[in-house]
Amino acid sequence: MIITHAEIRGFRNLSDTELLPDPKYNIITGLNAQGKTNLLEALWIMSGCRSFRSSREKDYISFSRNKATVEIKILDNIREQIIRTEISRGNNVLKNIILNGVKQKGTKSLFDVFRCIAFTPDDVDIIKGSPEKRRNFVDMAYSQLNPASVAYLNRHNRLLNQRNALLKEISENRTNPDILATIDRQTAETGAYISHMRYEYIRKINRICGELYRTLSGGNENLELEYKSNVYRSEDLKNPVNRETSRIYFRRLQETSGYDIRTGSTHTGVNRDEIVIRINGLNAREYASQGQIKSTALVMKLAQAEIFTEKSDDTPVIFLDDVMGELDENRQRFVFDIIKKMQVFITTCNKSSLLPEIRGRIYRIHDGKLIGE
Protein backbone atom coordinates (compact mmCIF):
# COMPACT_ATOMS: atom_id res chain seq x y z
CA MET A 1 0.00 0.00 0.00
CA ILE A 2 1.29 3.47 -0.88
CA ILE A 3 0.09 7.06 -0.85
CA THR A 4 0.28 8.37 -4.42
CA HIS A 5 -1.06 11.89 -3.85
CA ALA A 6 -2.03 14.13 -0.94
CA GLU A 7 -3.53 17.61 -0.55
CA ILE A 8 -3.60 19.33 2.84
CA ARG A 9 -5.37 22.66 3.44
CA GLY A 10 -5.97 24.63 6.64
CA PHE A 11 -4.36 21.97 8.85
CA ARG A 12 -2.57 23.39 11.92
CA ASN A 13 0.36 25.61 10.86
CA LEU A 14 0.78 24.00 7.44
CA SER A 15 0.46 26.14 4.34
CA ASP A 16 -1.75 24.65 1.64
CA THR A 17 0.31 21.68 0.56
CA GLU A 18 0.31 19.16 -2.27
CA LEU A 19 2.42 16.00 -2.15
CA LEU A 20 3.40 13.45 -4.78
CA PRO A 21 5.22 10.99 -2.51
CA ASP A 22 7.94 8.62 -3.57
CA PRO A 23 6.73 5.00 -3.41
CA LYS A 24 9.68 4.14 -1.14
CA TYR A 25 11.32 6.83 0.99
CA ASN A 26 10.07 10.35 1.75
CA ILE A 27 12.33 12.43 3.98
CA ILE A 28 10.93 15.60 5.59
CA THR A 29 13.65 17.79 7.09
CA GLY A 30 13.50 20.97 9.12
CA LEU A 31 14.06 22.45 12.55
CA ASN A 32 11.75 21.69 15.46
CA ALA A 33 8.28 23.29 15.57
CA GLN A 34 8.20 23.96 11.81
CA GLY A 35 5.43 21.48 10.96
CA LYS A 36 7.11 18.12 10.31
CA THR A 37 4.94 16.20 12.78
CA ASN A 38 1.83 18.14 11.69
CA LEU A 39 2.36 16.81 8.18
CA LEU A 40 2.51 13.19 9.35
CA GLU A 41 -0.46 13.74 11.65
CA ALA A 42 -2.58 15.02 8.73
CA LEU A 43 -1.84 11.82 6.81
CA TRP A 44 -2.23 9.57 9.86
CA ILE A 45 -5.79 10.64 10.72
CA MET A 46 -6.91 9.38 7.30
CA SER A 47 -6.50 5.86 8.71
CA GLY A 48 -9.49 6.42 11.01
CA CYS A 49 -7.27 6.24 14.09
CA ARG A 50 -7.10 8.95 16.69
CA SER A 51 -4.11 11.26 16.42
CA PHE A 52 -0.90 9.82 17.88
CA ARG A 53 -0.64 13.17 19.67
CA SER A 54 -4.01 12.77 21.49
CA SER A 55 -5.22 15.99 19.89
CA ARG A 56 -8.76 17.30 19.80
CA GLU A 57 -10.21 17.51 16.33
CA LYS A 58 -10.86 21.23 16.61
CA ASP A 59 -7.12 21.72 17.13
CA TYR A 60 -6.45 20.41 13.62
CA ILE A 61 -7.88 23.62 12.12
CA SER A 62 -5.48 26.49 11.49
CA PHE A 63 -6.06 29.59 13.65
CA SER A 64 -6.57 31.62 10.46
CA ARG A 65 -9.10 29.24 8.89
CA ASN A 66 -12.57 27.90 9.62
CA LYS A 67 -11.99 24.60 7.87
CA ALA A 68 -9.28 21.97 7.44
CA THR A 69 -9.32 19.44 4.61
CA VAL A 70 -7.05 16.51 3.85
CA GLU A 71 -7.37 14.32 0.78
CA ILE A 72 -5.18 11.36 -0.13
CA LYS A 73 -5.08 8.82 -2.94
CA ILE A 74 -3.86 5.40 -1.93
CA LEU A 75 -2.96 2.41 -4.04
CA ASP A 76 -3.16 -1.06 -2.51
CA ASN A 77 -2.64 -4.40 -4.22
CA ILE A 78 -6.12 -4.18 -5.78
CA ARG A 79 -7.08 -0.61 -6.69
CA GLU A 80 -6.71 3.12 -6.10
CA GLN A 81 -8.99 4.79 -3.55
CA ILE A 82 -9.57 8.37 -2.44
CA ILE A 83 -10.17 9.48 1.15
CA ARG A 84 -11.18 13.02 2.03
CA THR A 85 -11.69 14.46 5.51
CA GLU A 86 -13.24 17.87 6.15
CA ILE A 87 -13.27 19.44 9.62
CA SER A 88 -15.19 22.69 10.10
CA ARG A 89 -15.11 25.10 12.99
CA GLY A 90 -18.33 26.19 14.71
CA ASN A 91 -20.31 25.70 17.90
CA ASN A 92 -19.72 22.00 17.37
CA VAL A 93 -16.87 20.63 15.28
CA LEU A 94 -18.31 19.16 12.07
CA LYS A 95 -16.36 16.31 10.52
CA ASN A 96 -17.14 14.80 7.13
CA ILE A 97 -15.41 11.71 5.83
CA ILE A 98 -15.78 10.89 2.14
CA LEU A 99 -14.50 7.59 0.75
CA ASN A 100 -14.44 7.26 -3.04
CA GLY A 101 -17.05 10.02 -3.30
CA VAL A 102 -19.40 8.48 -0.71
CA LYS A 103 -19.96 10.18 2.65
CA GLN A 104 -19.28 7.87 5.60
CA LYS A 105 -21.10 7.74 8.93
CA GLY A 106 -17.88 7.42 10.93
CA THR A 107 -14.23 6.44 10.79
CA LYS A 108 -14.80 2.68 11.01
CA SER A 109 -14.70 2.17 7.23
CA LEU A 110 -11.23 3.76 7.00
CA PHE A 111 -9.64 1.04 9.16
CA ASP A 112 -10.10 -1.39 6.30
CA VAL A 113 -8.85 1.01 3.60
CA PHE A 114 -5.76 2.94 4.72
CA ARG A 115 -3.43 1.19 7.11
CA CYS A 116 -0.33 2.80 8.52
CA ILE A 117 1.94 2.47 11.52
CA ALA A 118 3.52 5.46 13.25
CA PHE A 119 6.77 5.39 15.22
CA THR A 120 7.12 8.40 17.55
CA PRO A 121 9.35 9.33 20.51
CA ASP A 122 6.30 8.89 22.77
CA ASP A 123 6.16 5.16 21.96
CA VAL A 124 8.31 4.55 25.04
CA ASP A 125 5.13 5.25 27.07
CA ILE A 126 3.79 1.91 25.84
CA ILE A 127 6.40 0.31 28.10
CA LYS A 128 6.91 2.76 30.96
CA GLY A 129 3.48 4.42 30.97
CA SER A 130 0.16 3.45 32.53
CA PRO A 131 -1.66 0.17 31.74
CA GLU A 132 -4.07 2.22 29.62
CA LYS A 133 -1.21 3.03 27.21
CA ARG A 134 -0.57 -0.66 26.63
CA ARG A 135 -4.28 -1.48 26.30
CA ASN A 136 -4.69 1.30 23.74
CA PHE A 137 -1.74 0.00 21.71
CA VAL A 138 -3.22 -3.50 21.53
CA ASP A 139 -6.75 -2.27 20.80
CA MET A 140 -5.66 -0.02 17.94
CA ALA A 141 -3.30 -2.62 16.44
CA TYR A 142 -6.00 -5.30 16.51
CA SER A 143 -8.62 -2.91 15.10
CA GLN A 144 -6.44 -2.26 12.07
CA LEU A 145 -6.46 -6.00 11.40
CA ASN A 146 -10.14 -6.53 12.24
CA PRO A 147 -12.14 -3.30 11.79
CA ALA A 148 -15.29 -4.95 13.18
CA SER A 149 -13.71 -4.81 16.63
CA VAL A 150 -14.02 -0.99 16.64
CA ALA A 151 -17.77 -1.33 17.24
CA TYR A 152 -17.16 -3.55 20.28
CA LEU A 153 -14.62 -1.12 21.74
CA ASN A 154 -16.86 1.90 21.21
CA ARG A 155 -19.89 0.11 22.62
CA HIS A 156 -17.99 -1.03 25.68
CA ASN A 157 -16.78 2.52 26.37
CA ARG A 158 -20.36 3.78 26.22
CA LEU A 159 -21.59 1.00 28.52
CA LEU A 160 -18.77 1.64 30.99
CA ASN A 161 -19.65 5.34 31.15
CA GLN A 162 -23.32 4.47 31.67
CA ARG A 163 -22.42 1.94 34.37
CA ASN A 164 -20.26 4.41 36.28
CA ALA A 165 -23.01 7.03 36.14
CA LEU A 166 -25.51 4.45 37.37
CA LEU A 167 -23.23 3.42 40.24
CA LYS A 168 -23.20 7.00 41.46
CA GLU A 169 -26.99 7.25 41.25
CA ILE A 170 -27.39 3.99 43.19
CA SER A 171 -24.96 5.17 45.88
CA GLU A 172 -27.11 8.30 46.29
CA ASN A 173 -30.33 6.22 46.45
CA ARG A 174 -31.67 7.83 43.27
CA THR A 175 -31.98 4.60 41.23
CA ASN A 176 -33.10 1.02 41.82
CA PRO A 177 -29.96 -1.19 42.17
CA ASP A 178 -31.66 -3.96 40.17
CA ILE A 179 -31.10 -1.95 36.99
CA LEU A 180 -27.36 -2.61 37.27
CA ALA A 181 -27.78 -6.25 36.21
CA THR A 182 -29.19 -5.16 32.82
CA ILE A 183 -26.15 -3.06 31.98
CA ASP A 184 -23.81 -5.73 33.37
CA ARG A 185 -25.15 -8.35 30.96
CA GLN A 186 -24.46 -6.06 28.00
CA THR A 187 -21.05 -5.09 29.40
CA ALA A 188 -20.17 -8.76 29.84
CA GLU A 189 -20.86 -9.52 26.17
CA THR A 190 -18.59 -6.78 24.85
CA GLY A 191 -16.00 -7.32 27.59
CA ALA A 192 -15.73 -11.02 26.78
CA TYR A 193 -15.05 -10.21 23.12
CA ILE A 194 -12.40 -7.60 23.96
CA SER A 195 -10.68 -9.95 26.43
CA HIS A 196 -10.35 -12.66 23.79
CA MET A 197 -9.28 -10.10 21.20
CA ARG A 198 -6.43 -8.89 23.40
CA TYR A 199 -5.38 -12.40 24.32
CA GLU A 200 -5.14 -13.46 20.66
CA TYR A 201 -3.18 -10.38 19.62
CA ILE A 202 -0.69 -10.63 22.48
CA ARG A 203 -0.19 -14.32 21.67
CA LYS A 204 0.73 -13.38 18.08
CA ILE A 205 2.86 -10.34 18.81
CA ASN A 206 4.72 -12.06 21.66
CA ARG A 207 6.24 -14.60 19.28
CA ILE A 208 7.43 -11.98 16.78
CA CYS A 209 8.65 -9.55 19.45
CA GLY A 210 10.69 -12.30 21.05
CA GLU A 211 12.42 -13.14 17.78
CA LEU A 212 13.09 -9.51 16.86
CA TYR A 213 14.38 -8.54 20.28
CA ARG A 214 16.77 -11.48 20.43
CA THR A 215 18.19 -10.40 17.07
CA LEU A 216 18.44 -6.75 18.12
CA SER A 217 20.21 -7.66 21.39
CA GLY A 218 22.61 -10.05 19.70
CA GLY A 219 20.94 -13.02 21.36
CA ASN A 220 21.72 -11.74 24.87
CA GLU A 221 18.22 -10.74 26.01
CA ASN A 222 14.71 -12.17 25.87
CA LEU A 223 11.51 -10.17 25.56
CA GLU A 224 8.13 -11.54 26.65
CA LEU A 225 4.63 -10.06 26.55
CA GLU A 226 1.79 -11.48 28.61
CA TYR A 227 -1.88 -10.53 28.73
CA LYS A 228 -3.20 -10.32 32.29
CA SER A 229 -7.00 -10.32 32.20
CA ASN A 230 -8.82 -8.76 35.13
CA VAL A 231 -11.61 -11.32 34.68
CA TYR A 232 -10.30 -14.55 33.15
CA ARG A 233 -7.61 -17.10 33.77
CA SER A 234 -5.35 -17.87 30.80
CA GLU A 235 -7.02 -21.24 30.26
CA ASP A 236 -10.42 -19.53 30.01
CA LEU A 237 -9.23 -17.51 27.02
CA LYS A 238 -7.99 -20.43 24.93
CA ASN A 239 -11.54 -21.25 23.82
CA PRO A 240 -13.68 -19.01 21.56
CA VAL A 241 -16.12 -16.48 22.99
CA ASN A 242 -19.39 -18.15 23.96
CA ARG A 243 -22.25 -17.86 26.44
CA GLU A 244 -20.16 -19.30 29.25
CA THR A 245 -17.39 -16.71 28.83
CA SER A 246 -20.01 -13.94 29.01
CA ARG A 247 -21.52 -15.54 32.13
CA ILE A 248 -18.09 -15.61 33.81
CA TYR A 249 -17.64 -11.91 33.06
CA PHE A 250 -21.16 -11.11 34.30
CA ARG A 251 -20.62 -12.98 37.58
CA ARG A 252 -17.38 -11.08 38.23
CA LEU A 253 -19.13 -7.76 37.69
CA GLN A 254 -21.88 -8.75 40.10
CA GLU A 255 -19.42 -9.99 42.73
CA THR A 256 -17.69 -6.60 42.93
CA SER A 257 -20.81 -4.45 42.44
CA GLY A 258 -21.05 -3.58 46.14
CA TYR A 259 -17.56 -2.11 46.17
CA ASP A 260 -18.20 -0.42 42.83
CA ILE A 261 -21.33 1.26 44.22
CA ARG A 262 -19.46 2.55 47.26
CA THR A 263 -16.65 3.99 45.14
CA GLY A 264 -18.71 5.05 42.10
CA SER A 265 -16.33 3.32 39.69
CA THR A 266 -16.03 -0.04 37.89
CA HIS A 267 -13.13 -2.09 39.24
CA THR A 268 -13.70 -5.29 37.26
CA GLY A 269 -13.33 -5.80 33.52
CA VAL A 270 -11.21 -5.00 30.51
CA ASN A 271 -10.77 -1.43 31.77
CA ARG A 272 -8.46 -2.95 34.42
CA ASP A 273 -6.48 -5.32 32.19
CA GLU A 274 -2.69 -5.22 32.06
CA ILE A 275 -0.16 -6.26 29.43
CA VAL A 276 3.01 -7.26 31.25
CA ILE A 277 6.28 -6.74 29.36
CA ARG A 278 9.33 -8.58 30.67
CA ILE A 279 13.00 -8.50 29.66
CA ASN A 280 14.93 -11.51 30.91
CA GLY A 281 12.06 -12.23 33.28
CA LEU A 282 11.97 -8.76 34.88
CA ASN A 283 9.13 -6.26 34.49
CA ALA A 284 10.35 -3.77 31.88
CA ARG A 285 8.28 -0.93 33.31
CA GLU A 286 10.12 -1.17 36.63
CA TYR A 287 13.57 -2.48 35.77
CA ALA A 288 14.43 -1.82 32.11
CA SER A 289 17.08 0.71 31.14
CA GLN A 290 16.31 3.58 28.77
CA GLY A 291 18.02 1.71 25.96
CA GLN A 292 15.98 -1.42 26.64
CA ILE A 293 12.75 0.59 26.76
CA LYS A 294 13.48 2.25 23.40
CA SER A 295 14.41 -1.08 21.83
CA THR A 296 11.25 -2.71 23.18
CA ALA A 297 9.00 0.04 21.83
CA LEU A 298 10.72 -0.21 18.47
CA VAL A 299 10.35 -3.99 18.35
CA MET A 300 6.65 -3.85 19.28
CA LYS A 301 5.91 -1.46 16.42
CA LEU A 302 7.95 -3.54 13.96
CA ALA A 303 6.08 -6.65 15.10
CA GLN A 304 2.82 -4.80 14.50
CA ALA A 305 3.92 -4.15 10.90
CA GLU A 306 4.90 -7.79 10.38
CA ILE A 307 1.56 -9.09 11.71
CA PHE A 308 -0.30 -6.73 9.42
CA THR A 309 1.71 -7.85 6.37
CA GLU A 310 1.24 -11.54 7.21
CA LYS A 311 -2.53 -11.19 7.46
CA SER A 312 -3.31 -8.85 4.58
CA ASP A 313 -0.71 -9.72 1.90
CA ASP A 314 -0.16 -5.97 1.67
CA THR A 315 2.23 -3.63 3.46
CA PRO A 316 1.29 -0.71 5.71
CA VAL A 317 2.61 2.81 5.19
CA ILE A 318 5.26 3.63 7.80
CA PHE A 319 5.67 6.99 9.57
CA LEU A 320 8.95 7.54 11.42
CA ASP A 321 8.55 10.78 13.33
CA ASP A 322 11.89 12.06 14.60
CA VAL A 323 13.04 8.64 15.84
CA MET A 324 15.73 7.50 13.40
CA GLY A 325 18.23 10.15 14.43
CA GLU A 326 18.26 8.68 17.95
CA LEU A 327 19.19 5.21 16.71
CA ASP A 328 22.73 4.05 16.07
CA GLU A 329 23.68 2.64 12.69
CA ASN A 330 23.05 -0.99 13.68
CA ARG A 331 19.52 -0.24 14.94
CA GLN A 332 18.74 1.83 11.84
CA ARG A 333 19.77 -1.06 9.63
CA PHE A 334 17.70 -3.43 11.75
CA VAL A 335 14.60 -1.22 11.25
CA PHE A 336 15.06 -0.73 7.53
CA ASP A 337 15.71 -4.38 6.88
CA ILE A 338 12.16 -5.05 8.11
CA ILE A 339 10.39 -2.10 6.44
CA LYS A 340 12.40 -2.01 3.20
CA LYS A 341 9.41 -3.13 1.11
CA MET A 342 7.09 -0.48 2.58
CA GLN A 343 6.47 3.17 1.77
CA VAL A 344 8.15 5.23 4.48
CA PHE A 345 7.80 8.85 5.61
CA ILE A 346 10.68 10.05 7.80
CA THR A 347 10.93 13.34 9.68
CA THR A 348 14.32 14.48 10.89
CA CYS A 349 16.13 17.66 11.85
CA ASN A 350 19.29 16.39 10.19
CA LYS A 351 19.09 14.15 7.13
CA SER A 352 22.81 13.34 7.43
CA SER A 353 21.94 11.30 10.54
CA LEU A 354 20.15 8.75 8.32
CA LEU A 355 21.77 5.82 6.58
CA PRO A 356 23.36 6.92 3.28
CA GLU A 357 21.46 4.29 1.29
CA ILE A 358 18.11 5.81 2.27
CA ARG A 359 17.40 7.68 -0.94
CA GLY A 360 14.06 9.02 -2.06
CA ARG A 361 12.11 12.26 -2.26
CA ILE A 362 13.40 14.95 0.09
CA TYR A 363 11.26 17.79 1.40
CA ARG A 364 12.26 20.75 3.54
CA ILE A 365 9.70 22.37 5.80
CA HIS A 366 9.98 25.84 7.29
CA ASP A 367 7.23 27.77 9.08
CA GLY A 368 4.64 25.33 7.74
CA LYS A 369 5.76 25.62 4.12
CA LEU A 370 6.83 22.43 2.38
CA ILE A 371 9.44 22.69 -0.35
CA GLY A 372 10.73 19.81 -2.46
CA GLU A 373 14.46 19.59 -2.98
Overview of the molecule:
The chain is of the alpha/beta class and 373 residues long. It is 39% helix and 22% strand. A 6-stranded antiparallel β-sheet has the order 2-1-4-5-6-7, with helices on one face. The chain is globular, with a radius of gyration of 22 Å. 40% of the residues are buried. The mean pLDDT is 89.
Regions with little confidence, pLDDT below 50 for 5+ residues: none
Query: Count of DSSP E strands?
Result: 15
Bin the strand percentage: 15-25%
Continuous helix count: 10
- The radius of gyration over CA amounts to 22 Å
Largest sheet: 6 strands, antiparallel
Question: What's the order of the H and E elements?
Answer: EEEHEEEEEHHHHEHHEEHHEHEEE
What's the end-to-end separation, in Å?
25 Å
What would you say about this model in short?
With 373 residues, this protein is of the alpha/beta class. Helices cover 39% and strands 22% of the residues.
Task: Summarize the topology.
Layout: E1 2-9, E2 17-19, E3 25-29, H1 36-44, E4 67-75, E5 80-88, E6 94-99, E7 102-104, E8 116-119, H2 125-128, H3 131-145, H4 149-171, H5 179-216, E9 223-228, H6 243-255, H7 257-263, E10 274-279, E11 282-283, H8 284-287, H9 290-312, E12 317-321, H10 329-339, E13 344-348, E14 361-366, E15 369-372
Parallel strand pairs: 3-13, 3-14, 8-12, 12-13
Antiparallel strand pairs: 1-2, 1-4, 4-5, 5-6, 6-7, 9-10, 10-11, 14-15
Helix pairs in contact: 3-5, 4-5, 4-7, 5-6, 5-9
Key traits:
373 residues; alpha/beta; six-stranded antiparallel sheet; six-stranded mixed sheet; 22% strand
